[in-house]
Amino acid sequence: MTLQQLRYFLTTCRHGSFTAAADALFIAQPSVAEQIRRLEDEVGVRLFVRTGRRLQLTEAGQTLRVHAERVMAATDAAEAAMQGARHLRGGTASLGTFGVAQRYLVSELVTNFVSRHPDVTVRVVGQHSSEVIEQVRNGELEAGLVTLPVDEPTLEVEPILTDEVLFLSRPGPDTGQPMSIARFAKLTLIWWPSVSGWRDSIRRQLRSWAEDEGVVLDASIEVEHIESALKLVEQGLGNSYVLRSVHESTSFPPALAVVPFVKPIYDTYALIWRKDHRPSPATAELIAMARQLMAGYAQPVPGGEKPGTP
Q1: Residues 247-281 pLDDT 10s
Q2: What is the rounded CA–CA span in Å between residue 116 and residue 110?
Q3: Domain coordinates of the chain in residue numbers?
């Protein structure tokens, strides 16, 4: 039983003859009759009987008509939804982001997207990069914006920019010159995000640098969100680090100061999507707008590999 057979069957029901159905479908009459014959052979019962010049449904035909109308209505709705998604008149755009992006980029991204495509549903999920990578790999999200590295062969990875990590403190002697790892280790330190711990790319870089110089780093205070770290530093409870893009944002506390590290530290961000699944037009548009927006926040990756625009 095919959709074509059901469509021919319902058209015949409405018009009462193979000839009238063929005219409505803009095909030859024998084609309609042949498809109805094959449908009757498959279901094993007569669907029509001839009464004069018209075809009348049998009891089996009436039963099939109810189900066929439901199937065709669902099919037509699905086709309309896909047509709308292709032309961004519907569908859903989904993107996972790391925590800082969720707080400093997503509002502008969603505002821009909705203003251009008001009929598209937007789903932006903010998590740790490792969780976003897992959800994209599993198909729960179509795409993600994460920090490198990404060790997942099933994903396309497009590095798009780097963002420098800066030492963060209240103004004073510690912000008078670039921060060394030895001086950094002697301070009361506020680390974030706590959920990722030492898996976080910034922490890994700082720990690697400390190990190279024989210095031990301790997590004096751990908080989940960068906003919490900013408030604690502002209260004088410790020192931390911040991304340059956050420092340059309008929401950065004016009472705090930053200096670079003696050894420059960077986070590199990348867009990811599954190699075996091309993102929907709606998500592809959201990816393009995220790429454009983030390019204005930090320095693009020099010679960054771009495997192809989704």
Answers
A1: 988 889 999 999 999 999 998 889 999 999 888 88
A2: 10
A3: 3-86, 92-158+268-295, 162-267
Joined together, the tokens standing for residue 48 give 């029509």
CA distances from 70 to 55, 75, 154 (A): 22, 9, 38
Element (H, E) at 36: helix 29-43
Burial class (CB in 10 A: 0-12, 13-18, 19+), 82: middle
Does the domain at 3-86 match CATH 3.40.50.720? Answer given as no
Copy the structure tokens of residue 257.
């100061």
Q: Which two tokens stand for residue 149?
A: 């590295």
For residues 199-225, one letter each, b for 16 or more C-beta atoms within 10 angstroms of the residue's C-beta and e for the rest, the string is: ebbbbebbbebbeeeebebeeebebeb
92-158+268-295, CATH topology level: D-Maltodextrin-Binding Protein; domain 2 (3.40.190)
Question: Is the CB of residue 267 less than 8 Å from the CB of residue 201?
Answer: yes
- Identical fold for domains 92-158+268-295 and 162-267, yes or no, is yes
What the block records as the tokens of 61 is 């035909």
Its sign, for the CA torsion 227, 231, 236, 237, is negative
pTM above 0.90, yes or no: no
